[in-house]
What we know:
31% of the residues lie in helices and 23% in strands. By secondary structure, it is of the alpha+beta class. The chain has one domain (7-246): 2-Layer Sandwich (archaeoglobus fulgidus dsm 4304 fold), CATH 3.30.2170. Strands 3-2-1-4-5-8-7-6 form an eight-stranded mixed beta sheet, sandwiched between helices. This is Endonuclease V.
Amino acid sequence: MFAPPGEDLVNQWESEQARLRLQVIEEDTEDWQRSPDFSGLERVGGVDLSFIKGDDINACAQLVVLSYPDLEVLYEDSQMVTLTAPYIAGFLAFRETPFLLEALQRLERNQPTLLPQVVFVDGNGLFHYREFGLACHLGVLSGLPCVGVAKNLLQVQGVYKNEEHQSQIAALQKGGDSFPLTAASGKVLGKALRSSNKSSKPVYVSVGHKISVDTAVRLTHSCCRYRVPEPIRQADCLSREYLRTQFP
C-alpha cells in the first residue's frame, strides 16, 4: 500500500499539470482527421492498465494497435509493471503515464511502421478538474493525437450526474448521438456519446491532444462495435488475459 502523498507532492503535480496543459492542442492537426471517412488513417492504438485482484501496485500495462477501419489487431505489448505512485483522483496520469509512454516508445524503436496515428486512452482528457487528464498527459508527452474515453461520468467543473444529465442520456436515440459536457465557465470539455445502437449507456469522450472534440467523437463512434471503442476494449481484454495466464 502507498502512503498518501504529502502536500508538497500534490502541489508539484498540480504545477506540472498546469505547465503541460499549455502544450495541449485542441484542434485537428492531421489530414485524415479532416476527411469525412478518415481517409489516410490506418492504425489506431489503445492503452490500458489491468491489476491483479487485491494488488494495487503490480499491473499489466497494455498497448494494442489495430488496423483501421477493419479493427484487426496488428500489434500487442503486455508488460508487467510496478507502480510507484498512489491513485489520487485527478492525478491518475502520474501513476499510469510512464508505463504507457514506455510501451509507445518501445514500439517506435522496434517497429516504427506500426506506431499508431491516434491513441485511445481509458480515461479522461480535457474533461478533468484542471483540464489535464491522462489522455492529455500521454498525448503531450508522446506527441501523438490522443482521445480520452471514460466509462463513468467524472462530476467536475459544474457537470453533474443529475436529472437533467439523465434526461439528456435518455434523449440519445441511436449510435453516434451525443450531447456536450459543458463546464460552469461555458466551455465544452467533452461529449457524452451513445457509442452503439445496442448500448444505451453513453461513454464520455474528451480531447487528449492534437484532435478536436467533434472529430474525437466521430472517430470514437467509428471504432465502436460495442459500447467501448475497440482499441480500448482489446487493450482491456488482452491485459486481463495476460494476467489470467501469468497469475492464475
